[in-house]
Design a protein that fits this description.
InterPro entries: Glutathione-S-Trfase_C_sf (IPR036282), Glutathione_S-Trfase_N (IPR004045), Thioredoxin-like_sf (IPR036249). This protein has about 290 residues and is an alpha+beta fold. The chain is built from eleven helices and nine strands.
C-alpha cells in the first residue's frame, strides 16, 4: 500500500519531520505532498482531508485519513507489524510508548522557547529554568532507556524505533540552540544529526528560502553542527558526466560542480538538495563513485 503524506516546511515543521520519518525509516511507501505552512495556503491545502487542520496527515489507498503523529504511529504499527516500528520486547515496547506519549504531550517550555529550525546553530541562546528542567527530564529518560534496553544498538532502544522518530526534533532543538547537555545526550544528538534520513530531510529543507525567516532570533549564527557537507555549488554551464538525473532518470537541465567535476539533474530541487548534502543521497553517491 502506498500512502499520501501531507507535510509542512521541512526546515521548521517538527511534527512533519516525525510523520515523514515513520515512512522513510521503516520502508513504508508514500507520496509526499507539501502544505503551505508558512505560505498562507494550509487551510486550502488540507480542505479535502477533513477534519485535518494541521500537518502531518496521511491518507491510505482507500481514502482513510489519519492526522496527528501519535495516531499515525499507532495506525502504521498496527497495519505493518513486520516493519518493527515499536521494539519487539513487550517491556521495552511499553516503555517506548510511554516516553513517546510524554514527548507528544510535554516539554512545553522547550517547544515554545526553541522552535525547531534546521538552518544553523544560534550562538548565545540562554535557556530558561523551565527549558533546563525539560532538558533534565529528557536526559533522564534517554539515559534510563539506553541503560535498560539499548545494549543491541546505538538508538534509544538499541534498534531504531518510533521513540527515535519522536525524539528526532528534540535532538534538532538541542543542536539548533546549542543547549547544554551531558556527553551521553550529546552523543545521541550527534547520532541523530548524522543519520542519513535526517540529513536528506534537512538537505531538502534548505532548498527553500524564507523572507522573513520563521522563528528568527537576533543572535549570532554559526554552521549547523551536523556532519559538514562535501563542497559543491550550482553552476550555469559545463559538460555533465551524466545525461540523465540520478533521481528521476529524466534529461539533465541543471548542473552542479564538486571536486572539479560536473553533474546534471532534471530540476533545481534535485540539484540543490545534492549541493546541500551530496553524501546523503545514495543515488548520487553511486553516480559520483562510478
Amino acid at each position: 500500500m502506498t500512502y499520501d503524506l501531507f507535510i509542512g516546511d521541512r526546515a521548521f515543521s517538527s511534527w512533519s519531520l516525525r510523520g515523514w520519518l515513520m515512512f522513510e525509516k521503516f520502508g513504508l511507501p508514500c507520496r509526499v505532498h507539501m502544505v503551505g505552512l508558512y505560505d498562507g495556503t494550509m487551510q486550502a491545502d488540507l480542505a479535502d482531508l477533513a477534519p485535518a487542520r494541521l500537518v502531518p496527515v496521511m491518507r491510505d489507498a482507500d481514502g482513510v485519513v489519519v492526522g496527528d503523529t501519535l495516531a499515525m504511529a499507532e495506525t502504521l504499527a498496527e497495519r505493518h507489524p513486520e516493519a518493527g516500528l515499536w521494539p519487539a520486547d513487550p517491556v521495552a515496547r511499553a516503555l517506548a510508548r510511554w516516553i513517546v506519549a510524554e514527548m507528544h504531550s510535554g516539554f512545553g517550555a522547550l517547544r515554545g522557547d526553541c522552535p525547531m529550525q534546521l538552518l544553523h546553530q544560534l550562538e548565545g541562546f540562554v535557556p530558561s529554568e523551565a527549558v533546563l528542567a525539560d532538558l533534565a527530564r529528557i536526559e533522564e529518560l534517554w539515559s534510563m532507556v539506553r541503560a535498560r534496553h539499548g545494549q543491541d544498538g546505538p538508538w534509544l532502544f538499541g534498534d531504531y524505533s518510533l521513540a527515535d522518530v519522536f525524539y528526532a526534533p528534540v535532538a534538532a532543538r538541542i543542536a539548533g540552540y546549542g543547549l547544554p547537555v551531558g556527553q551521553t545526550t550529546q552523543d545521541y544528538v550527534d547520532l541523530t544529526l548524522s543519520e542519513m534520513a535526517f540529513r536528506r530531510w534537512r538537505a531538502l529543507g534548505l532548498t527553500k528560502s524564507y523572507d522573513p525567516v520563521p522563528y528568527d532570533m537576533d543572535l549570532a549564527k554559526r554552521a549547523w553542527p551536523g556532519p559538514p557537507p562535501r563542497p559543491a555549488r550550482a553552476v550555469e554551464s559545463g559538460d555533465a558526466e551524466n545525461a540523465t538525473c540520478p533521481y528521476s532518470g529524466k534529461p539533465v537541465t541543471h548542473l552542479l560542480e564538486t571536486g572539479g567535476r560536473i553533474f546534471g539533474f532534471c530540476n533545481a530541487t534535485c540539484r540543490d538538495k545534492t549541493v546541500n548534502d551530496q553524501d546523503a543521497w545514495p543515488a548520487f553517491v553511486a553516480l559520483r563513485e562510478k
